Amino acid sequence: MNLSKNNLGEVLASSAGQEVWSYIWPALGTTLYMLALTTLITFVLGLGLGIVLAVTGKDGIRPLPVFNAVLGTIVNVLRSFPSMILIILLLPLSRLVLHKTYGANACILALVGSCMPMLGRLVEGSLSEVVKGKVEAAKAMGTGNWNIVRKVLLPEALPSLVRSFTVTVIAILGTTALAGSFGAGGLGDVAVRFGYNRFRTDILIPTVLVLIILVQGIQALGDAIARGISRRRYLV
Amino acid sequence: MTESFVEIRGLTKTFRTRDGNVEVLKGIDLDVSRGDIFGVIGFSGAGKSTLLRCLNRLENPDAGSVVVGGVDIARLGKKRLREERRKIGIIFQQFNLFDSGTVFDNVAFPLEIAGAPRKEIKEKVESILDLVELTDKSRCHPAQLSGGQKQRVGIARALANEPELLLSDEATSALDPQTTYSILELLKEINRRLGLTVVLVTHELDVVKCACRHMAVIEDGRIVEKGEVRSVFSNPKSATARQFIRISEEFVRDFAVQGGESI
């Protein structure tokens, strides 16, 4: 059903119908599954990457110029690939690890590869924003580098880190939609296969709507958490 | 002169900047006796903060020795430096408190780092907060406090590990005169009660006058005058010291005249 053949009322009526949602519900499940797993892995790796980038940077607590430059270049190269190309490039890796190049699990590797460098940079930025004087105060108290990261940089940057995470989760959601076209399934897959290829505007509209609601929800949650932390510290 | 607690010899420090090298400290020799309150005064860029920061190696000296309590800070390895730093407290102009924690957490921080047991931390923090008269603010966050209160937390945090030396890097420069006075009184009281040595740097003559027993005047990376505060004031030998005294007097006079006119 689409707007060139049917009027808007008919399309919307079909959008609300059972047939359409019988495609969307399972796809939503797949998307949320990919989102959750990718987010989890990206969090851990991206946070680690960001800490390493910030700590070894020029103004970091343990500057390692050569190492930082090499790591930075790798991150930049990964980030220069359009997500689509990176997904295609990482599929052989999925085959190697999971013996499979289709399905949600196979795509998670590609999704992590695509989103982790971004989170790394965002975390690096959040950590570098911590006032230098606080780090100096900690140093002056005889604090080692690991404790500076753990007890000063991470807690002080927490509201900013939450915002970085929020941006990343939404980026991951966007990329899962893209990965849908490469056999991952999910909402992106439904939107392309039915909405675009088969001119099913009645499926396209609710799929996009669900994605909008997801993005809004994630952003609202992230904002609320970040604000909540700042408020508890009386910073806002 | 009593025993020297801080002994600085031939200290030099050069910063490499975009516009070339800047020699900030050009061979500093300085002695501070145990239990003294020692003021280093200088105009902006004279090198006074760098000098102070060499005492706990927030800046690495290029040459010379910085002996604190018999240990040459300039020559310590990483681990030993961390241990020695726990015996040297520092307070800053911008306080540098941790917004993520409460007043209690801030004061507890150095004790946690030093690995003190929980019960001991609690007792110690409470007794120090009592000393700086902030017991009722223990559960507050730094953002809820006034400038003077923040600096009291800074002092409490610096004292937590019972240091023998307290460094003050323009600690009162962001405070109003009344608060400055109360913070200086607190430093004097701590000096008296705990017998700890204080080295403070400032660009305000009144701070030195109010708090210090001995002083040094630093100009362009060199100590141009040092001695008892009273004798420097009554008989300033260097141009910089005379300039400081003149500015202070002019300020007081102009302020008084202006105040009179406005009434």
What's the Cα radius of gyration of chain B? 19 Å
| Helix count from the secondary structure assignment of chain B | 9
Give the tally of β-strands of chain B.
10
Main sheet overview of chain B? 6 strands, mixed
Q: Specify the number of helices of chain A.
A: 9
The CATH topology label of chain A is MetI-like fold
Structure class of chain A:
mainly alpha
Q: Write out the CATH superfamily name of one domain in chain B.
A: P-loop containing nucleotide triphosphate hydrolases
Assembly state (oligomeric)? heterodimer
Q: What's the helical proportion of residues of chain B? A: 40-55%
Describe this structure in words.
In chain A, 81% of the residues lie in helices and 0% in strands. With 236 residues, chain A is mainly alpha-helical. Chain A has one domain (8-232): MetI-like (MetI-like fold), CATH 1.10.3720. Chain B has 9 helices and 10 strands. In chain B, a hairpin with a 2-residue loop joins strand 1 and strand 2. In chain B, helix 3 (103-113) packs across helix 4 and helix 4 crosses helix 5.
Question: What key phrases describe this protein's structure?
Answer:
heterodimer; A: 236 residues; mainly alpha; MetI-like fold; 9 helices; elongated; B: 263 residues; alpha/beta; Rossmann fold; six-stranded mixed sheet; 10 strands; globular
